[in-house]
Write a structure and sequence with these properties.
CATH architecture of the largest domain: Up-down Bundle
CATH superfamily of the largest domain: CRISPR-associated endonuclease Cas1, C-terminal domain
Number of domains: 2
Low-confidence stretches: none
Order of helices and strands: EEEEEEHEEHHHHHHHEEHEEH
Oligomer: single chain
Mean pLDDT: 91
Number of helices: 10
Number of strands: 12
Strand order of the largest sheet: 1-5-7-8
Structural class: alpha/beta
Distance between the termini: 32 Å
Radius of gyration: 21 Å
Amino acid sequence: MELYLNTYGTYLYKTGEMFIVKIEDEKHRVSPKRVSSIIISNAATISTDAIQLALEYNIDILFLDKYGDPYGRIWFPKLGSTTLIRRKLLEVYTNDNGLDFVKEWTCRKIQNQIDFITLLLTKRPNIEHDFENELQKMAEYKEIINNMKGSVSEHNNSIMGYEGNTSKNYYKIISKLLPDKYQFFGRSSRPAKDPFNAFLNYGYGILYGKVERALVIAGLDPYIGLLHTDNYNKKSLVFDFIEPYRILIDKTVFYLFSRRRVQDNHWDEIKDGATLNADGKKFFVPEVMETFDKVIRYRNSNMKTIGQIQADAHAFANILIGKNKK
């Protein structure tokens, strides 16, 4: 389970071998054996003995800013990694395999977007043909990317351009399928210009933390990217690897808005935009965790939806060092 602390005045400490979550006058005992990670937002407090207990059970602690972006984390310092994996990751950028990985991640993202839009439109037969042009363009951009040959460096800008154009079409359709009150004009972040993007941003922030953890556990360096390259102090591989999994947040947020479960008191207006408030985070995070915890069949195993990220990260690392074939 995820232990999520986002209420002002929440205090997490340790008694014996148990976590104690104190919210005002209420106390809840939580076994560390049941906790996979601890997420802290807003003005929650954690004691050093609780941190020590978390590390003893290999529980990472993630700190989120007001936009949902991770700004720090604490985790066990001996997570598995080998120099060979990191060296192979550096080498793959300059050869054909590097481009193949980037194509796979990007095309999976685009196909997820196409599949989701197609599913939504089948339930709206009166407007099913209104977005044929946008869907066709998305499929064309995916095919162009998929047919590229050479190295990542040769096609870096082109891939990001086609992916960006695909996303513009995708979010245009998503917006049109929402109730009029929540329709928006494209993606926006830091700050989001509307409630829908505020929820997306916060959800993506949680997802970033999951992807980074999966990469590190698999022995991969989150700072060595392929498509997003090595921007100073940026976890470039996280930005690369996250793409196929964004759909988990997209679906969760869309259904919350389309089913009118989001309330006006879940977000606040700020200068030039909107942001989730404490009530919004308290409402939204359990919905994200429910999505993550849904059991699916993946790679011939039953696992939680979020488990596919770790499975893919291990598979990627094993391909790099020759244990698996691509």
